[in-house]
Input
Amino acid sequence: MSATVTAEAVLDLIRTELVDSGVEEETITPDAKFDDLDMDSLDAAELMATIKREYGVTIPRAELADVTVGALAATVVEQARP
Output
């Protein structure tokens, strides 16, 4: 984990993970809600596992229900600070 976690770095990670799971890249914006993206619960679980591995931040899958990509990134940045 790097000393400084930026929203841009977290957004890039989220975007990469979502594209790898089949989500259309053009639909992944900071304002996009996870519920509106074409992803299943396994994809969500894999994203949360990657965030935990990369940043040490645990986000329950249920919290993705009405969250935007940008809001998740902001939460990860906030919680990843030492």
User: Anything to note?
Assistant: The CA atoms of residues 15 and 28 lie 7 Å apart. The two ends are 11 Å apart (CA to CA). The first helix runs from residue 7 to 20.
